[in-house]
Amino acid sequence: MRAAEISDQLTTVLVTEEQIHAKLEALARQVESDYDGKELLLVGVLKGAVMVMADFARQLKREVTMDWMAVSSYGAGTKSSGVVQIRKDLDTDLTGKHVLIVEDIIDSGLTLSWLLENFASRGAESIEILALLRKPEAAKVEIDCRYVGFNIPTDFVVGYGLDYNERYRNLRDVAVLAPHIYS
Ligand code: IMP
Ligand code: MG
């Protein structure tokens, strides 16, 4: 669905599907040149990064392998708890691998800082991050993210994989959720 179809549940559309696709295409060109001649493993963080991974990976004009990790730092609410739980681990041995973590959003940064440490301890050759969205004002820990799609305000957003209680992941655009939905 598009934002216009559920406009009563949203306040502002921050990024449209068209803008997302254009950005992912540009990031793909950058990643192709940065990893030229190197094997690349994309690690998607479930479930939010499913759409980013699907669209970004298919923009790449080269081979990559993909794996998935499921972690949760959020309960059912709209605030980051900082408590990270592994729900599904990788199937791939990271030893000697060039890893690009694909994420939907960096909010507090707590999830990614935990993941970075965790992956480093598994012997990856390099670890970088691609995040579609970043909320710079919400950062509790500084994350060195090499590929950022869009910087957005600290409002709670949904769409393009991002959910509120598992809803709105199939919204094609990224939009601010209307407060009457969660309050
Ligand atoms: P962080 O640990 O605070 O950086 O964020 C971890 C996870 O929280 C992200 O990967 C998202 O899945 C989720 N998250 C953060 N901000 C939002 C939001 O505005 N809407 C929906 N999910 C969010
Ligand atoms: Mg996520």
What does this structure look like?
The model has no long low-confidence stretch (mean pLDDT 93). Strand 3 (65-74) and strand 4 form a beta hairpin. This protein is of the alpha/beta class and 183 residues long. The chain has helices at 17-34, 50-59, 110-120, 179-182, and strands at 10-15, 40-46, 65-74, 80-88, 98-106, 126-134, 147-151, 157-158, 174-177. Bound molecules: inosinic acid and magnesium ion (MG). Magnesium ion binds next to loops.
Q: Which geometry do the CA atoms define?
A: globular
**Spatial strand sequence of the major β-sheet:** 4-3-2-5-6-7
The amount of helix comes to: 10-25%
* Helical stretch tally: 4
Gyration radius (Cα, Å) is: 16 Å
Bound small molecules, by name, code or SMILES, are:
inosinic acid, magnesium ion
- The stretches of 5 or more residues where confidence is low (pLDDT under 50) are none
Going by helix content, strand content and strand pairing, the class is alpha/beta
Binned strand content: 25-35%
Ends apart, CA distance between termini: 23 Å
The main sheet comes to:
6 strands, mixed
Kindly report the average pLDDT value.
Answer: 93
Q: Helix-strand pattern, N to C?
A: EHEHEEEHEEEEH
List how many beta strands DSSP finds. Answer: 9
